[in-house]
Amino acid sequence: MQNNHIKNLSGIILATLFISTSGVLGKYIAMPSEVIVWFRSVFAMVILYVFCRFKKIDLTIQSRRHLFPFLMGGIFMGVHWVTYFYALKLSNVAIGMLSLYTFPVMIAFLEPLFLKIKFNPIHIILGLMVLLGLYILAPEFDIKNTQVQGVLFGLLSALSYSIRILILKQYVIQYNGVMLMFYQTVIITVLLVPVLFFMDVSGFQEQLPYLLLLALLTTAIGHSLMVHSLQFFSASTASIISSIQPVFGILLAFIFLNEIPTWNTFVGGSLILATVIIESIRSRKG
């Protein structure tokens, strides 16, 4: 039992590390956010389809009633990605990623409404810790400040991601996580086709290696592992454990982009990291 818990916890932390590469790549790739997301989706869609065929993963949707939830999950995933990249480009990797990580707070409050489970009061305390960390990141609220704009886009991204997780949570037992991720990339690819005609797609060849890395490592592998982990943890627990993602992202940004975090970032990030440790210990005892 203990070995299984360690294995499952290791899996979600590995998924978090892979997903955290989106911060550096999203900031570095010199293309509009919507265009980046389209290429990310179409490449990931192909990779996931080949993987499903190779592993003989069933791509059949079992009921027509599942079509609408799948569609909504894909739409919210697309909104999450686009607004997240806006947050990264307006501010920096640290602020973009840390503002996104208000989503555990949102999930903690939304999960009882979506999944008809009992609300756990400890998530209020953990949520307040995350919110305090967010406040430390941007204490002066000025809408003209690009860092504040980055935080606001991060919050919108967090809300979209929360809803997407809660929609898919109900289907992770019935469907393979890779299959679910495949259909989300299909939906996002189709919905964002118009951006290719209205936005600048020049520089595609120069950015191709980074777009492929974003599609394979961050999207195909990272998000599929994360969806898979929802089988072993509640959505609240999985999201709070994965809050270590900004720490990984900040370290990668320091190494590859030479972004040096401020003291505000360290303090706010430490509060968020504390919620990860507390929730990991709490879920293990549970």
Characterize the structure shown.
The chain is an all-alpha fold. Helix content is 77%, strand content 0%. The chain contains 13 helices and no strands. It has helices at 2-28, 33-54, 67-90, 93-100, 103-115, 122-137, 146-169, 177-191, 195-198, 204-229, 235-241, 245-256, 263-285. The protein is globular and about 50 Å long. It starts with a helix and ends with a helix.
What Rg is obtained from the alpha carbons, in whole angstroms?
A: 18 Å
How many DSSP E strands? 0
End-to-end distance = 12 Å
Order of helices and strands: HHHHHHHHHHHHH
* Helical content class: over 70%
Class by SSE composition? mainly alpha
Number of helices: 13
**Largest beta-sheet details:** none
Instruction: Calculate the mean pLDDT score and round it.
Output: 86
Shape verdict: globular
Strand content: under 5%
Low-pLDDT parts are none
Task: Please describe the topology of this protein.
Blueprint: H1 2-28, H2 33-54, H3 67-90, H4 93-100, H5 103-115, H6 122-137, H7 146-169, H8 177-191, H9 195-198, H10 204-229, H11 235-241, H12 245-256, H13 263-285
Write a compact overview of the structure shown:
The chain is mainly α and 286 residues long.
Protein traits:
globular; mainly alpha; single chain; 13 helices; 286 residues
